[in-house]
Design brief:
The chain is α+β, with helices and mostly antiparallel strands and 96 residues long. It has a single domain, classed as Alpha-Beta Plaits (2-Layer Sandwich), CATH 3.30.70.100. 41% of the residues lie in helices and 30% in strands. The protein is built from three helices and four strands, in the order βαββααβ. Strands 2-3-1-4 form a four-stranded antiparallel β-sheet. The chain starts with a strand and ends with a strand. The relative contact order is 0.36.
Length: 96
């Protein structure tokens, strides 16, 4: 069953975040990730629980692949750049 890594990102240092994006994408793809949305236009319909700002959606073959990507030593090194450049909420959810 496919799994989706969903990220809401508030950019604090957009220039630095560009470096993160360049390094993170090949790693996600190495673990079977396919980017479906990356910071495109966002229309909010309801915000009772959450008001996202910039969404990224990556489909993985399964939750194990998504977790292997996120937990990998390679990604954890790149993630340090993101943590300097942005604030994020990250979730992995199984789906169709």
């Amino acid at each position: 069953m496919a799994a989706y890594l969903i990220v809401d990102t508030a950019l604090d240092k957009p220039a630095l975040y560009e470096e993160y994006k360049l390094r993170a994408r090949p790693l996600a793809e190495k673990y079977g990730g396919q980017y479906l949305a990356r910071g495109g236009e966002l229309t909010l319909k309801e915000t009772d629980l959450w008001a996202p700002t910039r969404m990224v959606l990556i489909r993985f073959p399964d939750a194990a692949s998504a977790n292997r990507f996120y937990d990998s030593a390679e990604y954890q090194e790149v993630l340090k750049i993101s943590k300097q450049a942005a604030r994020r909420t990250v979730a992995i959810v199984e789906g169709l």
